[in-house]
């Protein structure tokens, strides 16, 4: 067992005094049962625990969120699509499909973020608003991590394109730029706006040099004195070599050009060309990748990974993936500057830069309250064949373990269990067994829901569960005196013993009331009649009544005879059968009837004799 | 191909019905009601089922064919105890819902302030063992039809009830109709 990496969080249960009395707990499928016992640690035990309540504690409340429900449902569809991707596909086409799946997941997260953001703004109660806002931050962090994993593990961007992807990543997640830009550009004199230079700086930090140049041209127009140096800076920005997607130059060519451009920037710095404008000079230093200059812009950068990407952009744009983690670690240390310690998010991102997938998943599992994220991400990475298949000590691999946990969480929700079924389907080792256990425990309050559950079981040939559920429903029906319902459930369950029980009830009812209930069912049993002897008798006996009612006395009589001669009639019914024979015996019909009548007489006489002998015998013996 | 507008409502919808138009009206239907199911647990009341009224029209968005464009909007909703097994419009303003708890409810829509309220309720319309007995057990009401002023309901208890709007008790009940 591994040691804990950190102290577990403590949750206080209101009303329970754990210092005084011992607590009792038990695990449920998605929650924990806790109560106080009367065992006292120090003094004598009291008769009754002081806290009279039993508590149910649940960690995962996300599953009850209305907005997150959209996340669960839509990602379920994406998950299924991913499982069905043709295994034959290899190489580029497979990779592009997997990248598309990853982007789909991310767009769902973003959609939920957007919706939750709207709700947070519109919330009337500030506490509610705060809760929604923090949920938005969590979703944003999830998307940040997922995006980075997509770049590093799924896209597997090589040196060159790697930096472009990282730039996109940062631009997507540090989005104050757009509101700042709108502010500045919307004002009368943009270049005189307070935040003008902040805007230009952040554009440079994000590598958006075209936009920065446009800003500078406004400054050049507004103050002709600095037009000259603005133009020079603009030219520098324009000529910075970058790898564009359609570009055919090799990495070495790019590196060479970039080195050349870097030296040109150095010369301008040495010549103090921009000495008259501190803003422009600091921009130049940034473009030279000067760490001190970059760290001065901590506030605009707002986080260490932005710092990392900017640093790479202006000092090593052709960085190789395997070298990333050196820069990542040092960027984190430089940015935090020893003032604060890394947050869980920082550790997760670092682990990703180190290409340590297992560490990423482990840290995410600890930090997040719900298995959704790690289950889907791990499943996707598994499809990219990135997870070694070393088995965990409880028999399944990591992907399956996480999917099982997630699906079990879904089953704890009254509605979302239907999603959980599909997740279990794609867990080859323990999925079926888990599904069998969970599906029997779904509360069935209407027949409609029961039929849905049964259809799921029948589709998967889960005959044991079908039988079990039908038996439960049959029992419920018997208790509620719905005999017809009980009979059809026991037929569906192929439960002979129960069918016998219900048939007995039918026959008893008949004896009491003189008529049958649920005629439409009994009349149309068909081959199901063979399920149990008693049921066969019930069906045949009813058939006898029908024939008699249709005045087909010959057929009725022979049926009655066969009922008597076969052994399926219950003892209690023999009198009834004989009584039924009486009117037939009385009738004056043709010869066939006569023979039948004679047969019946013989039979009843013989039976009577047998009974008499037994009686006599037992009397004599006593 | 026609446009399809999808909106995620975070509920499993069991029934949906168009609101009937006034006789002789030439318009197409604009309002519909939905009922949800499978949203309650005994242990927590974090969620419940809802009857909701939605509108698709008359926001001034008509496309070139004169059809309606854009999302449907939620007008109002109201909590419903138990799964909504069936839903019918009784008339322009009233909706009848059949519940898995055996209760039949008439909801009234107030167009002036866009709210729904409970107009009438028959809580023990369907049961296995009656309300008088200590082992009272309700049965789901599985279907409902309306023909103003009458409402007929059926349930898993094999009972058919005939109700009349504004009458407290059932007008007629047929037991063991199955």
From TrEMBL, chain B:
Taxonomy, superkingdom: Eukaryota
UniProt KW Repeat keyword: yes
Gene Ontology cellular-component annotations: cytosol; nuclear speck; nucleoplasm
Keyword Nucleus included in the entry's annotation: yes
Signal peptide positions (record): none
Cell compartments where the protein resides: Nucleus
Protein name: Nucleoporin 43
Keywords from the named record: Nucleus, Repeat, WD repeat
Primary location recorded for the protein, binned into one broad class: nucleus
């Amino acid at each position: 067992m591994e040691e804990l990496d950190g102290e577990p969080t403590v949750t206080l249960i209101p009303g329970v005094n754990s210092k005084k009395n011992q607590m009792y707990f038990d695990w449920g499928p998605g929650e924990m049962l806790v109560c106080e016992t009367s065992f006292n640690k120090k003094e004598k035990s009291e008769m009754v625990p002081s806290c009279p309540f039993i508590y149910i504690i649940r960690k995962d409340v996300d599953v009850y969120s209305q907005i997150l429900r959209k996340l669960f449902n839509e990602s379920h569809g994406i998950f299924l699509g991913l499982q069905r991707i043709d295994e034959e596909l290899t190489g580029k086409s497979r990779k592009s499909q997997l990248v598309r799946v990853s982007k789909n997941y991310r767009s769902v997260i973003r959609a939920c973020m957007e919706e939750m953001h709207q709700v947070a703004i519109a919330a009337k109660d500030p506490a509610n608003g705060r809760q929604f806002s923090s949920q938005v931050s969590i979703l944003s962090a999830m998307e940040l991590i997922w995006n980075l994993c997509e770049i590093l593990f799924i896209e597997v961007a090589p040196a060159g394109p790697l930096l472009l992807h990282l730039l996109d990543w940062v631009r997507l997640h540090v989005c104050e730029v757009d509101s700042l830009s709108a502010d500045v550009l919307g004002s009368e004199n943009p270049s005189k706006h307070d935040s003008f230079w902040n805007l230009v700086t952040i554009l440079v930090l994000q590598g958006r040099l075209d936009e920065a140049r446009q800003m500078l041209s406004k400054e050049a127009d507004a103050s002709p004195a600095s037009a000259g140096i603005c133009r020079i800076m603009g030219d520098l920005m324009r000529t910075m070599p970058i790898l564009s997607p359609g570009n055919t130059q090799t990495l070495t060519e790019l590196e060479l050009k970039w080195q050349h451009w870097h030296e040109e920037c150095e010369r301008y710095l040495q010549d103090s060309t921009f000495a008259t404008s501190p803003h422009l000079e600091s921009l130049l230093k940034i473009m030279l990748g000067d760490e001190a200059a970059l760290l001065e812009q901590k506030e605009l950068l707002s986080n260490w990974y932005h710092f990392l990407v900017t640093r790479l952009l202006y000092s090593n744009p052709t960085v190789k993936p395997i070298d990333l983690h050196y820069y990542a670690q040092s960027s984190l240390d430089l940015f935090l500057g020893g003032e604060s310690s890394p947050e869980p998010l920082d550790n997760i991102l670092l682990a990703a830069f180190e290409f340590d997938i297992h560490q990423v998943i482990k840290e995410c599992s600890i930090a997040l309250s719900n298995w959704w994220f790690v289950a889907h991400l791990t499943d996707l990475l598994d499809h990219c064949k990135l997870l070694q298949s070393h088995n965990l000590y409880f028999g399944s691999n990591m992907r399956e373990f996480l999917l099982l946990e997630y699906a079990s969480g879904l089953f704890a929700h009254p509605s979302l269990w239907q999603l959980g079924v599909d997740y279990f389907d794609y867990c080859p080792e323990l999925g079926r067994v888990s599904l069998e256990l969970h599906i029997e425990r779904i509360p069935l309050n209407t027949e409609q829901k029961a039929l849905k559950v049964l259809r799921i079981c029948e589709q998967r040939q889960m005959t044991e569960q079908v039988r079990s559920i039908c038996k439960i429903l049959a029992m419920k029906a018997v208790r509620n005196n719905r005999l017809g319902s009980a009979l059809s459930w026991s037929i569906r369950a192929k439960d002979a013993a129960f069918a016998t029980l219900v048939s007995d009830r039918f026959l008893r009812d008949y004896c009491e009331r003189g008529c049958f209930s649920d005629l439409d069912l009994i009349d149309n049993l068909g081959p199901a009649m063979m399920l149990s002897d008693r049921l066969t008798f019930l069906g045949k006996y009813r058939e006898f009544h029908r024939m008699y009612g249709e005045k087909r006395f010959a057929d009725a009589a022979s049926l009655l005879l066969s009922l008597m001669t076969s052994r399926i009639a219950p003892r209690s019914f023999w009198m009834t059968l004989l009584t039924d024979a009486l009117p037939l015996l009385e009738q004056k019909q043709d010869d066939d009837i006569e023979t039948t009548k004679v047969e019946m007489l013989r039979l009843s006489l013989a039976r009577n004799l047998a009974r008499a002998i037994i009686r006599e015998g037992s009397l004599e013996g006593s | 191909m026609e446009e399809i507008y999808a909106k995620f409502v975070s509920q499993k919808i069991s029934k949906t019905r168009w609101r009937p138009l006034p006789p002789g009206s030439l318009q197409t239907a604009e309002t519909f009601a939905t009922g949800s199911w499978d949203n309650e647990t005994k242990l927590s009341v974090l969620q419940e089922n809802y009857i909701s009224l939605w509108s698709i029209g008359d926001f001034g968005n008509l496309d070139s064919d004169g059809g309606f464009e854009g999302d449907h909007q939620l007008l109002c909703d109201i909590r419903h105890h138990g799964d909504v097994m069936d839903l019918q419009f009784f008339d322009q303003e009233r909706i009848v819902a059949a519940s898995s708890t055996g209760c039949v409810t008439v909801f009234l829509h107030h167009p002036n302030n866009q709210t729904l309220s409970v107009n009438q309720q028959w809580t023990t319309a369907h049961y296995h063992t009656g309300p008088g007995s200590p082992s009272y057990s309700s049965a789901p009401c599985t279907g409902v039809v309306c023909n103003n002023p009458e409402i007929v309901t059926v349930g898993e208890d094999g009972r058919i009830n005939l109700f009349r709007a504004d009458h407290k008790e059932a007008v007629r009940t047929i037991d063991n109709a199955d």
